[in-house]
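Please, structure for the following, as tokens.
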Amino acid sequence: MATKQKTGKMRQRSLRNLKVSSIGMGSAQTYDVYKDEDIAVRRQIMDACIDEGVTLIDTSPMYGRAEEVIGKVIEGRRDKFQLATKVWAAGKETGRAQIARSFELMKTDHIELIQIHNLVDWETHLPYLEKLKSEGKIDLIGITYGYPDMLPEMMRIMKTKRVDTIQVSYNLKDRAVEKEVIPLAADLGMGVLVMRPTGKGSLATGLKRQPDIGPLAEFGIQTWGQAALAWLLADPRIGVPIPATTKPSRIAENALPGKIAPLPKEMRDYIEKETARCS
């Protein structure tokens, strides 16, 4: 039996040549806020990210005021974070204006990763992103898609080798990318960001039965949400899951799987079987 692991510092993963925290943070449906008190909570979330070593923050113009709020709450500490945003627009001028607006809203002259959201008008946006990358204004170019229907198109784009990362939906109950997309990314050396890593929270709180956490306790795992994240990180082809939260206290919980060594195969298999039993 393995000895109980000690929780250390946040481990790093690679998105191409960019080192990022093993656990990132998403902002869909969580950073579109207006009230001062709600923005203050998001600032506390960023405080917790700094404390826990969570550096990669994923956002999008699609997420309402998220970019603007992120710009406010990281002001004065931009160097603590790596920003991943997206272009989600049809047409060259609309896309370029949206990208410029992202820089403005997040109060930065450099963005680590810009992704073409849902593959929208990718052939138009890709040359401009390549230009920004050549100028050093961005580090990486990515594409995103969250459903099975367009995965063949995603793979076609990946095979051009013009993008550095993909962002896909992947978790214990959503495994459409497992057979072809993830292996292709590994073959091409692409970074993989994972949206919905806990199934929009359903794996953490929505199972029909209470999973038996006992066999995972020696690894420091205390919740099934942590188990779901640890299951992803046990696959070396995965770059960084990006769970979202509105609670500062949740950052430490989400961060723990990124601070332990990848689980052995038998524990990954156990998580799969126990999730199926409790679903």
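The chain is about 35% helix and 15% strand. The beta strands are 12-15, 18-21, 56-58, 82-87, 111-116, 138-145, 165-169, 191-195, 240-241.
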